[in-house]
Amino acid sequence: MISLRNLSMHFKVHVKEAGFLGSLRSLVRRQYREIVAVDGISFDIPDGEVVGFLGPNGAGKTTTLKMMSGLLHPSAGTVTVNGHTPHKRDNSFLQSITLVMGQKQQLLWDLPASDSFLVNQAYYGIGDADYRRRLGELVELLALKHIIDKPMRTLSLGERMKCELAAALLHQPKILFLDEPTIGLDITMQQNVRDFIRDYNRLHKATVVLTSHYMGDIAALVSRVIVIDQGRVVFDGSLRDLTQRMVDRKILKLHFATPVTRQALERFGLVERLDGHAATLRVERGAVPQVAGAILANFPVEDIAIEDIPIEDVLRSLFAGSGAPS
After folding, report:
1. What is the pLDDT of residues 176-228, one digit of tens each?
2. No. of helices (H) and no. of strands (E), the chain
3. Other CB atoms within 10 A of residue 310 CB
4. Rounded Cα distance, 40 and 5, in Å
5. C-alpha distance from residue 110 to each of 113, 122, 135, 304 (Å)
6. Where do the CATH 3.30.70.1150 domains begin and end in the chain?
């Protein structure tokens, strides 16, 4: 469905010295610096897959999404989406995709969402019967019944985000590019949006490329992640594989019937937290069965949980320069 081959994007930005003299020099002779936003990335995404597209700020995620959606013409390399070259902006291509950016708004501020939906119906040439059916489906999935007739400016951020999603999906696209779709939303609304994306993928077999700084979005929706840093792909595989190959430890969360000392626990692993009856240890992955058994045999354990290192910590380690997994 989506194929990138050695895709690159370079920008020229104006560089100016500070102060009045710098401004004068800039008028006479402008200086430019080349920025490499995306640096020769390649990957394939099959039909119907939900992929997490991750990276730190400035890694090139949004630039790549804009090239895949046709908003930017690549400096080098090729990208095809559903058999189309995105920057050519063919009508059939535009009918098959949508791009939702959590920090951008497409609906008109002083109009109710229902009016903007009608504009989209006309723009995409959606027949009346299809429009009513699709709108009814979206209203039900996103719980919009009581808000679509209110001006957008009167809605909360979460309500506006749900309306933005509905507007973006009225033409029933097969490819969804979602750039931070839950940014700024509270926990409940984040979960509602995640549930909607999951349901839409299941109902329509849609291909979804999702960027998010909320790891809850990634853990809940994707099985495969593509990680880029400084414009290059540094990992492409399963979320579980990323965790296992980047981190050689697991977390043991323990609750004791009576308090224990830090000194007593330190021989089993790194004590991250100790608060009376509760403790958190980091233990080498291969030693977890032996350590758990020894703790259960020697301490009054009421509860024990074994967890992977949080994905936030895994990515932080990756971006800090610990190296991509082989």
Report:
1. 999 888 877 778 878 888 888 998 999 889 999 999 878 788 888 998 999 99
2. 12, 13
3. 14
4. 7
5. 9, 19, 21, 54
6. 248-308
